[in-house]
Amino acid sequence: MTPDSATLPTPTTKDYSAAMRLWHWANWLLVSAQLITILFQRVIVKAKTAVPEYQELMSREGISLSEKQARSLTRVISERIWDWHVYIGLALAGLWLLRLLLELRGPSPRRFGARLTAALRRYRLAPPARGENAGRNLFSLLTYLLFYIMLAVIALTGLGLTYHHDFEWLDRIEHDLEEIHNATMYGIIAFFVVHLVGVVWAELTSEKGLVSRMISGSQERE
Ligand code: HEM
Ligand code: HEM
C-alpha cells in the first residue's frame, strides 16, 4: 500500500540452512523443557514444602515420621525431576557442541562470526537513512552472541554439577557452580522474552516472513 522505507532489503543473509533451522527449534524445545523442569521444581511440586503434609498423612495411618524422614521421602519426587533436568541438560550441552560445529564447518558467509563482523562494519558505514536498520540488525546479532555465551556457561556449570561427585576440584566449587548456573537462567529467560518480542515485532513491521523462513527456509516475500 505504501512505499515502505522500512522494507529496504536487509543486506545480510537471513536464510538459514536446514541444519541451522533444525538446531534452532531443537534448542527452543530443550531450553523450554529445562525451564519447565524448574517451574515444576520450584512452583508446582515444591517438594521441600510438602514435609508437613507427608507427616500429617502418615500420622493418620498411625505412623510417626520425623522431619528428616519426611524430607527424604519428598526428595524422591524432586530427584525424579532433577533426573529429567540432567537428561535434557546433556542433550542441550550436545546441541551447544553441534552449534559450534555448524559455525566451524558452515559456508563462510553464513557463519555467525562473519555476519557479526559484517553487521558491525555496516553499522559504522551506514548512511543516516539506513542507520536504524543497521543498528537493529547489529543489536539482534549481539543478543544472539550473548545467548550463545550464556548457553556455554549454563552447559558447562550444569556438567560440573552433574559430575561434581567424580572430581574433588569440582566438588569444592559446587556451590559457586550452582550460583552461576542459577543466575545464568535469568539471563536466558530475559533473552527469551527480548527475542520473542523482537522477532514478532520484526515480523509485523519490517521483516514479513521472518518466522516462516526460520521454519521452512523459503525466501518468499510479500
Ligand atoms: C536452559 C538451560 C538450563 C536451565 C534454565 C537450568 C536451570 C537450573 C536451575 C535453576 C538449577 C537449580 C540451581 C540451584 O540449586 O540454585 C539447576 C540445577 C542443576 N542443573 Fe540446570 N539448567 C539448565 C541447563 C542444564 C544443563 C545443560 C545441565 C547439564 C547436564 C544441567 C544440570 C543441572 C544439575 C545437575 C543441577 C543440580 C541438580 C540438583 O541439585 O540435584 N542444567 N539448573
Ligand atoms: C528458547 C527459545 C529460543 C531460543 C533460545 C532462540 C534462539 C535463537 C538464536 C540463538 C537465534 C540466532 C541464530 C543465529 O543466527 O545464529 C535465533 C534466531 C531466530 N529465532 Fe529464535 N530462539 C527461541 C525461540 C524462538 C521462537 C519461539 C521463535 C518464533 C516465534 C523464534 C524465531 C526466530 C527467528 C525468526 C530467528 C531469525 C532471526 C534473524 O534472522 O535475525 N525463536 N533464535
Automatic annotation (TrEMBL):
**The keyword NADP is assigned to this record:** no
What topology does the record note for this protein and the membrane?
A: Multi-pass membrane protein
This protein's UniProt keywords:
Cell membrane, Electron transport, Heme, Iron, Membrane, Metal-binding, Transmembrane, Transmembrane helix, Transport
User: What Gene3D superfamilies has UniProt attached to this entry?
Assistant: Transmembrane di-heme cytochromes, Chain C
Which top-rank group of organisms is this from? Bacteria
Transmembrane segments in this chain: where? 25-44, 84-102, 138-163, 183-204
Compartments, as annotated in UniProt:
Cell membrane
Signal peptide bounds: none
Q: List the Pfam families hit by this protein, alphabetically.
A: Ni_hydr_CYTB (PF01292)
Q: Which residues form a coiled coil?
A: none
Keyword Ligase in record: no
Q: Where is the Cytochrome b561 bacterial/Ni-hydrogenase domain?
A: 16-217
Q: Principal localization?
A: membrane
To which protein family does this belong?
Belongs to the HupC/HyaC/HydC family.
Question: What is the official name of this protein in its record?
Answer: Cytochrome b561 bacterial/Ni-hydrogenase domain-containing protein
Give the source species: Hymenobacter saemangeumensis
